[in-house]
TrEMBL record:
Stretches the record annotates as Disordered: 1-23
Species in which this protein is naturally found: Rhodospirillum centenum (strain ATCC 51521 / SW)
The organism's taxonomic lineage, starting at the top: Bacteria, Pseudomonadati, Pseudomonadota, Alphaproteobacteria, Rhodospirillales
Pfam families, per the entry: Ferritin (PF00210)
Similarity comment: family membership: Belongs to the Dps family.
Domain annotation Ferritin/DPS: ranges: 35-170
UniProt cross-references to CDD domains, sorted A to Z: DPS (cd01043)
GO molecular function: ferric iron binding; oxidoreductase activity, acting on metal ions
Chain intervals with Polar residues compositional bias: 1-12
Descriptive protein name: Dps family protein
Length: 172
């Protein structure tokens, strides 16, 4: 006869079999993972938008924008992996579906093909959005004494600030 296990009888998931004991308490790791999940969602949404703009840009600046957008989406591809792996290192699962990302992100999804100048304007705003989300996580990391997450956020902020500057300069 099959008998359902109660929550206390189930074998804990593998991530709980050996608790994370890196010097950060669980509540701090939870707060950090939640903040990083928002950065991950913003980054993944920005990645998709930038890649779409790379495919669809037209006009006088086609070549330079096509190349710049490619450089940016390639960086973002590596960043999403770094962010998700940091969440896992903190002992939590990273969001991994588009529906989860769209619930967590502050970046507006683009369903059309805007003119090149509008693409640039949107990407400036979106990179600045990611920067602000990273700043919020820096505050959480500083409070928790998590210099690893703080360092990752500082690297991401530096990247997004530079990307926003280059995009803004391309608007002319």
């Amino acid at each position: 006869m099959d008998q359902q296990l109660t929550d206390t009888q189930r074998t804990p998931p593998s991530h709980e079999a050996l608790p994370v004991q890196t010097g950060l308490p669980e509540d701090a790791r939870q707060d950090l993972a939640q903040g990083l999940a928002r950065v991950l969602a913003d980054t993944y949404t920005l990645l998709g938008k930038t890649h779409g703009f790379h495919w669809n840009v037209t006009g006088r600046q086609f070549h330079s924008l096509h190349e710049m957008f490619q450089e940016q989406y390639e960086d973002l591809t590596g960043a999403v992996d770094d962010l998700a792996e940091r969440i896992r290192a903190l002992g939590h699962f990273a969001p991994g579906s588009l529906s989860q990302f769209l619930k967590l992100t502050e970046i507006e999804d683009e369903h059309g093909v805007p003119a090149p100048q509008e693409m640039l304007s949107q990407l400036v705003r979106d990179n600045e959005t990611v920067t602000r989300t990273c700043r919020e996580v820096v505050d959480i990391a500083q409070e928790a004494g998590d210099t690893v997450t703080e360092d990752l956020m500082n690297q991401r902020m530096a990247y997004h600030e530079k990307a926003a500057w280059m995009l803004r300069a391309s608007i002319g």
